[in-house]
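Chain X:
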Amino acid sequence: MTGMCQLLPGQGQIEAVGERCVLIRLGDKADLQTNQVVQAVTAQVERSGIAGIVEVVPSFTSVAVHFDPMAFDADGDPPTVLLARLLQRALQQDIPLAEDTGRVIEVPACYGGEFGPDLEEVAAHCGLTCDEVVALHCNSPLRVYTFYFAPGNPFSGPLDPRLNIGRRKSPRIKVEVGSVAIANGLSSIYAATSPGGWNVIARTPWNLFDLRSDPPNRLRLGDRLKFKPISAEQYRQLLEPR
């Protein structure tokens, strides 16, 4: 990805979300175009050199900027106001688009059965066969938009619009680590066993987060995930220690 972008009217609104964080709002829909702006703004804030910034955290449609209030003049306006002014100045110019990682990651996934208990329900809801759901999920690489919910847990998209389905009406108490799930135009991989309300259609034998690795995240923002169907036997052969 190359080029520059400018924030459109309505983008770049900054608001305080506590005494140590401000939020830069960049859209209201998780899609590829908004994600490109989110990543560009994240990089621009990191380059700005504004004193006191502790961490910059991108999400689907916004960027959270965590900061140290002690870095700002206590006799003037509140630190959140001072930081907002500095950020607005940094964003009032052409912003380089973030470079594409260039990585297409082929993710093995076993669909249906015990590994994808919601596959048949998704197919029925979408008016498709199970094979068609798998093909649509695997046909186009899905861009990693953000990591959320648990360390290393990627959310990627956009899904083919024919896979239009919301969250499950009844969340599960336990979703197995590695589960590949879809909802609301996005696809996610559970990096840890946890409760969850998305539609589980497959499971990967990979670990996505390991503190023994450097970096611990297997994936990066901007990676494109290309899911590859595998059999249950192949899943067991490729299964990494949990």
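Chain Y:
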Amino acid sequence: MRLHPLEIASRIQEDYARYLQTIYFFRDPALRRQFQEALSAPHFLSRGPILEAAAPFRLGRSVEQMIQDGILHPGFRTLCSDALPLHRPLYLHQDRAIEKIVAGSRNVVVATGTGSGKTEAFLIPILDHLLREQAAGTLDVRASGPFSSTR
């Protein structure tokens, strides 16, 4: 079954108008007629669906390619899963941010839309740092905050 956004929007508006007519039944015929006219007026309940076309994000390297290029630690191969596929290309802005952070840039700003992978852009370098410390034998896990214990 294919859904057509314009047909669905129209059906939702009609269903909602019908619902409103049943819960607000005016005894006065003049008020009832005015209410029905208002509900059937164009753009009274909805201005229609808002459709937005956005260009896809440009693609960068995959985690595997970044490992091969010496940017990420080879231990990433053991961390990858369905949530972070080894061979799936990252977005270009993720690729660039990860490379800069791993190279030592202290200040990196990733300004992009919702759902575009900002979280991965900073988590991957953190995981890379931990993998490198583990490989060097210098990994010291520490926690602080309201739930940590000092014992």
